[in-house]
Amino acid sequence: MANVRTYSPSVRVGNWNEDLCLEEDTLKDFLDKRDQGELLVQKTHNLLQNTLKKVDLSVSTDGLLHFGDTVMIVNPGAERNDVRDIRQRDPTALCLNISEYKAHLAAQVEAPCPVSASRIVKPCIRNAFVITSVDGTPNGQPLRYGQDFALSTTEGYAGNLKLHSDRVSFLKCAKKSRQQEVSLVSELSHFTKWKIIAFEPQLRMEYEGLPVQANVKLLITHSKTHQHLNIAQDYVARTPFGYEFEVTAHMDLDSHRAEKETNHWVIITGTPTDDGRTMFDKPRPDPAGLTDRPTEGTGEVRNAGLDPTQTKPDITKEERPTMEEMLTLIEQTAKGEELPPQTQ
After folding, report:
1. pLDDT band at 290 (very low <50, low <70, confident <90, very high)
2. Mean pLDDT lowest for which of 91-105, 150-164, 168-182, 272-286?
3. If both were cysteines, with which of 39, 94, 215, 224 could 73 make a disulfide (CB 3.0 to 4.6 Å apart)?
4. Which H helix or E strand runs over 29?
């Protein structure tokens, strides 16, 4: 009980002068850290402000991807085919996963930096990547299927890092899934080369050398190891932005030797409008065409642009004559009699 202070420093009891000096020093240190921006709350605010800053994606006028375009790499997610299926997953975007400790000490993202798949699909510093040429192709030229390229982060705070991967070893692999690790490095090499493969397996040879369309499903393959960019949906990592999926390079195949949805990606571009949306947010056309069908989860009926009061046109099928009528027509034709008029 001798070291317990039972009175405030204003009470002149014990080492009251020392207690006053300690409180003044504590307040002075707090004010100095606040002026220099070294408080934890200030560092956290700066981290969120830097990494979640809005980025304008490139707009594709011809529907193709070009070198130098700023895009997002989005996995469309997995739909639930059955109410008992628990593997439903929302769309996620490939993003850099900077640690909170390094973010508080560094002025920009430093290599090596891990990556993850975040549910934040709005374009920002974290999930914006630039299609970079590795074979001397100038910016503005279309990217082609099977052509090597690199994915770089944006300039500035993101550090212009390149997406990197290498073969699995005993000491170098993903932390949780133990699959081929994917990270961001600062130097270009043959470990940072990727290529696009067509989504349809039976048409991949025909697509080889053709320009890559934007905003369509495709596969992103590592040129050296021939492993697809993959989301390890069974493994999540804790980040300053919440729990996010681990990203690896792994060919995830089903029983038919076809790639699963964890290998499917869409390279998203921007829209010409100024509302900040991307092509991923653009509403899809109704595949039902002019046929009416109820909206899922509601009792409303979509009419595909027709007047709601307009009824569906009555489409009558052509009536075919029966066997007896056909025999009667044949007999009348043979006798030369006049045939009755056919009803339309």
Report:
1. very low
2. 272-286
3. 94
4. helix 16-36
Mean pLDDT in residue range 19-48:
77
User: Quick check: 162 and 187 in contact, CB under 8 A?
Assistant: yes
Percentage above 70 pLDDT, the chain? 72
Element (DSSP H or E) covering residue 332: helix 323-335
Burial profile 136-175: b = 16 or more Cβ within 10 angstroms, e = fewer: ebeeeebbbbbbbbbbbbbeebbbbbbbbbbebeeeebbe
Strand pairing category for 149-153 and 128-133: antiparallel
**Partners of 211 in beta bridges:** 144
Which residues, 6 or more positions from 34, have their beta carbon under 8 angstroms from its beta carbon?
Answer: 42
Query: Would you call 72 exposed, middle or buried from its count of C-beta atoms within 10 A (0-12, 13-18, 19+)?
Result: buried
Task: Please state whether the predicted TM-score (pTM) of the whole model is above 0.90.
Answer: no
Tell me the chain's radius of gyration from C-alpha atoms: 32
Q: Which helix (H) or strand (E) holds 75?
A: strand 70-75
CA dist 299 and 78 (Å) reads: 26
Contacts of 143 (CB under 8 A, 6+ apart): 64, 65, 66, 67, 131, 149, 196, 211, 212
Structure tokens at 32: 């100095």
Query: How far is residue 344's CA from residue 339's CA, in Å, rounded to a whole number?
Result: 15
Report whether 225 contacts 180 (CB < 8 A).
Answer: yes
Q: Sorting pLDDT into bands at 50, 70 and 90, what band is 26?
A: confident
- The CA-based angle 167-75-134, given to 5 degrees, is 50
